[in-house]
Amino acid sequence: MSNILRNISICLLLLFLGSCKPNGEKKVSAVAAGSKLIVCCEGNFGWGNSDFDIYNLRTNELNKNVYKAVNNASLGDVLQSASLWNGYLYLVVNNSGKIVALDTIDYTRQDAISGFNSPRYMQAINNQKALVTDLYANKVYLIDRTKGIEQTFPVRGFCEGMAASDDEIAIACTRGAIYFFNKNQMQISDTIELEKGSKKIIRLGSSFYTMSLKESKSIMYEIQNKQASVTWDTSVFDNQYVGFAFNKVKNEWLFIQSSTLYSMSRDFKNLKVEYSNPSANFYSITVNSTNGEVYISNAKDYVSAGEIIRLSAEYEFIHSATTGIIPGYTLLVE
């Protein structure tokens, strides 16, 4: 494709995304407007066909393979997660060992940080530095956005999601630990022991919450002042959940298991089914903290095109859209 045709194609794509202005002025980020959902599609492992889709929540339209369409290149192998940091969209490409920074207006590649083993998630510390977890390295990376990897901290096994308070970052580790990174000391300062399997951790009020595994069941912890207490053990329900989130609009917990969405009160009572799709394979969940809408990634068979399911704050079906292969992490910027 000639440069002229390529530029025309990019402009048409940006018009779809709502980011192209005829006078050439730099527009406020289309992502930051809060009307779009970034859908990270992992792709087939080893095939190098990961990318991200953009789901327009105003129109219910989904634009696929945005990175390749804009940059005329493949992103890499297994897109694990995405973050907004300092006005750029950072894509964590797991099996390619890199993090790619994109412009949030036209999605062109700006920079990349390499040298990781198998990065998973990124959590900003401040405007200059961030932490990155890794699948195989048995370490957490401290990165500088202009200098790259600066330091590593040893951990037990692989770590996954992170959540921040004013002075620390909690790091979930699947081997049965939560690490605490002190922002002032720029060091991992504390560790607490839990059941194994913790992959996601969130900050709610003055506490952190995470979900681990207890044999074949799930168990929820509240962590306050680096002390963990069990808030809900699912053994009585004989259930193991693949993901959780908190709906601030409804003030209740949400859990996904296979093809079913459950809700539960803030104090972990009254578990009930809210939505079910027998043919689905729920993979991740995101809640819109402004209006309470829920977005569920349906990975289907893990080898073909997936789906993003949009539910209202009352957990009623609104719309679904076909995505790339294995839609996982989703990023809604509000």
Short description, anyone?
The chain is mainly beta and 334 residues long.
Walk me through what this model shows.
The chain is mostly beta strands and 334 residues long. It contains two helices and 28 strands. The protein has helices at residues 3-17, 66-71; strands spanning 36-41, 51-56, 61-63, 79-85, 88-93, 98-103, 109-114, 119-124, 129-134, 139-144, 148-154, 159-164, 168-173, 177-182, 187-193, 201-204, 207-214, 217-224, 227-233, 243-247, 252-257, 260-265, 272-276, 282-287, 294-298, 305-311, 317-325, 327-332. The protein has a four-stranded antiparallel beta sheet with strand order 3-2-1-28. The chain has a four-stranded antiparallel beta sheet with strand order 4-5-6-7, with no helix packed on it. A four-stranded antiparallel beta sheet has the order 8-9-10-11, with no helix packed on it. The longest helix is centred in the first third of the chain and has 15 residues, at 3-17. Residues 1-12 and 14-33 have low confidence and may be disordered.
Topology readout:
Elements: H1 3-17, E1 36-41, E2 51-56, E3 61-63, H2 66-71, E4 79-85, E5 88-93, E6 98-103, E7 109-114, E8 119-124, E9 129-134, E10 139-144, E11 148-154, E12 159-164, E13 168-173, E14 177-182, E15 187-193, E16 201-204, E17 207-214, E18 217-224, E19 227-233, E20 243-247, E21 252-257, E22 260-265, E23 272-276, E24 282-287, E25 294-298, E26 305-311, E27 317-325, E28 327-332
Antiparallel strand pairs: 1-2, 1-28, 2-3, 4-5, 5-6, 6-7, 8-9, 9-10, 10-11, 12-13, 13-14, 14-15, 16-17, 17-18, 18-19, 20-21, 21-22, 22-23, 24-25, 25-26, 26-27
